Amino acid sequence: MAADQNRPEGAGSAGGAGARDDRQLPRGGEPTANEERPFLQRPQGVLAVVGGFVGIVGGILGLVFLLLPDLQPEPTPEPEPGVELVDFDLDKEALIQADMVSGGGEPQTTADWRSSLVTVILGNNGDNPALVSQAEFRFSKIAEIGCPYGAGGLDVKARYDIKVPFEARAPMKQVRKMKYTVPPHEQERVAFTVGPERAYEGNLPQVYVFTIILRLTDGSHIEIPKMTYMDPFGQEPALEAAEQAMTSGHFMATEACVREQESKARNLVRGTKKVSPELRNFSTQLTRITSRNST
Questions:
Q1: Mean per-residue pLDDT for 61-68?
Q2: In Å, what is the CA distance from 12 to each residue of 6, 9, 30?
Q3: Bridge-partner residues for 93, per DSSP?
């Protein structure tokens, strides 16, 4: 009994010199399935082979591109900095001057009124100046607004930047050549007035819906989104006629016409995000007139 107590813990029996060492086996004393599988069938082996294959292919491609550089795919070039649209609005005004000409072609008098400016802000992110060479106005709608109120004998020739031909119909485009430089790393503002090439006393206000394409000398272009613009010539007499038609009566404008034009004006205001203040005011005044006199 004393000899057994001095035997090292875990030693095999006297006849077990070739017995397995249970400390190197999992519980139960049996080898795992992974230990019994060949190396290439184990997950570690598969990963090692795939990794080695990818490395070999990468090395071969690198050698090919080194010896034959023309075969190497060129990286996608980053877009060069240039001119971009920063903002645009219809909030500012300009003084429009016009010649009032008689039927015989003789100037009778001059007139002026204030009209909204189409203002575009451009930014140049490049290192060189950029030149805008052309403004192309693409009209998708040209319409009159208001009820007839009378006529006069004078021909009105106003000095607009973009002159829409008399009795023009959409769709159409009007092109204006220009030379406008945007210095490098700066912002510049370019503005336009829009109106009829010619009109007559008694003409109704004109409403235009358009987009603008600004073309640069390098072949690029900038598109300004759609906006709705009203030429204010004739709006005051048109509103006076509407007021009379809804109260005491007018010799030309009718109550039905005024209500129809009020609805038309509201729809035009809702048509685009950018709307000139003249059209918003005209619509508001027609709504006021029809609401006050509604039965």
A1: 56
A2: 13, 9, 18
A3: 116
- What is the phi-psi region of residue 185: left when phi exceeds 0, alpha when psi lies from -120 to 50, beta otherwise? left
Between CA 258 and CA 266 the distance in angstroms is 12
Interstrand relation of 130-144 and 206-216 (parallel, antiparallel or unpaired)? antiparallel
Instruction: Give the predicted TM-score (pTM) of the model.
Output: 0.68
Q: CA 51, 54, 59 angle in degrees (round to 5)?
A: 125
Return all residues near 266 (Cβ < 8 A) that are at least 6 apart. Answer: 283, 287
Could you report the per-residue pLDDT of 249-294, keeping only the tens digit for each?
A: 777 788 899 999 999 999 999 988 999 999 999 999 999 999 876 5
Maximum pairwise Cα distance, the chain: 145
Which two tokens mark 209?
């819906």
